[in-house]
Amino acid sequence: MAGIEHDFVERVAHFGPDKALIGIVAQPARPFPADRLSVVILNTGTIHRVGHHRMYVAMSRRLARAGFTVLRFDFSGLGDSATHRSKQPLLQSNFADIGSALSWLEKTQGISRFILVGLCSGADHAILYGFSDSRVIGSVLIDPYIPPTARYFVDYASRRLRDVRSWRNFRLHKSKLMRRLVERFSYGLYRENAPQHLAYQGLDARASLEEVYDAAVKASIKLLVICTGRHHAPRQTYREQFINAFSNVSFGGSLRLEFFQDADHTFSSAQSRKDLEDLVVKWCETTKFERTRSESTSTVDVTDRWIA
After folding, report:
1. 128 and 77 belong to one structural domain
2. How far apart are CA 184 and CA 146, in angstroms?
3. Domain tally for the chain?
4. Which residue from 74, 162, 274, 275 has the highest number of Cβ atoms inside 10 Å of its Cβ?
5. Cα distance between residue 203 and residue 147, in whole Å
6. Does 231 have pLDDT greater than 90?
7. Which domain-ending residue is among 187, 209, 238?
8. Is residue 66 part of a domain?
9. What is the share, in percent, of the chain residues with pLDDT greater than 90?
10. For residue 188, which of 174, 201, 171, 176 has the smallest C-alpha distance?
11. Beta bridge partners of 307
12. pLDDT tens digits along 194-217
């Protein structure tokens, strides 16, 4: 059912095999630009397409008002979408769902250039999928997986040691600091009760992701990487951690990096969500996207090293 609210239109989308994938399309109510882009917002973990604190609802409407067609949808087996019938592993199933979303928009809306948006595991999906599909010209990666660096350990340790409770817990043999450092040194990726990243099935997640980011840069994909700093167990502790972690990639003008020092991982404050929306809309409006449909796709394939 379509509905008009202010200067945008929203309707339900059914697409994919047996039209089993469900999403919401938001579009500007005024005439569409001739050379328009579409933004596709991906699930975070098992969170419904509305996102944490309905952040994706607000973001999609802001983008629609700005002239973009936006699709936020549920992967197979999440939210309102039916379970995938294929025998594919979950990650490959999710990639197939992203491809179906892009193809549906291309067929029904005549759009062939796409920006993928994702938080946490959604960001991981966006970067792992995007470089291999020539229709993807940009990605907004919100708190993507970033390997720890030497400065990360120093910053994190300093922060915890300044917390009086850390000393109390240390005396009680419950030190979160020590547990976190042990976990970080022992595993390439870690999982928490919060939204989870994809898991890596190899010895070197950093090298694998460097291949992906390098392929994305060479494919002329523009990247907006947004990191947050307010966590009980932060993934990032400083703005340049992303660049330091992937030091072998020459991002050049392909990357815009932002650090929301006072925002938590799920953007629980209204102000942080508004700031995020402002940034994403402005970036989509002002970035010069260079990738064209005729460009060849990368031959890099590291997706079998990751699981959802």
Report:
1. yes
2. 12
3. 2
4. 74
5. 13
6. no
7. 187
8. yes
9. 58
10. 201
11. 199
12. 567 888 777 688 899 999 999 999
pLDDT for 191: 40
Q: Is the pLDDT of residue 307 over 50?
A: yes
Q: Are residues 57 and 164 in the same domain?
A: no
Is the pLDDT reported for residue 118 higher than 90? yes
- Is there a single domain that holds both residue 180 and residue 132? no
Co-location of 177 and 110 in the same domain: no
Conformational region of residue 18, where left means phi above 0, alpha means psi within -120 to 50, and beta covers everything else: left
Same domain, 49 and 161: no
Read off φ and ψ for residue 76, nearest 5 degrees: -55, 130
Supply the range of the domain harboring residue 32.
3-146+199-307
Q: Which tokens hold the place of 148?
A: 């720890």
Structure tokens at 43: 């699930």
Please write down the HEC assignment for all residues of the chain: CCEEECCEEEEEEEECHHHCEEEEEEEECCCCCCCCCEEEECCCCCCCCCCHHHHHHHHHHHHHHCCCEEEEECCCCCCCCCCCCCCCCHHHHHHHHHHHHHHHHHHHHCCCCEEEEEECHHHHHHHHHHCCCCCEEEEEEECCCCCCCHHHHHHHHHHHHCCHHHHHHHHCCCCHHHHHHHHHHHCCCCCCCCCCCCEECCCCHHHHHHHHHHHHHHCCCEEEEEEECCCCCCCCCCCCHHHHHCCCCCCHHHEEEEEECCCCCCCCCHHHHHHHHHHHHHHHHHCCCCCCCCCCCCCCCCHHHEEC
The span from the CA of 34 to the CA of 294, in Å, is 19
Does one domain contain both 99 and 26? yes
39 and 56 Cβ atoms separated by less than 8 Å: no
Output the average pLDDT for the chain. Answer: 84
Q: Is 300 part of any domain?
A: yes
2: pLDDT strictly greater than 50: no
Question: So what's the pLDDT on residue 237?
Answer: 79
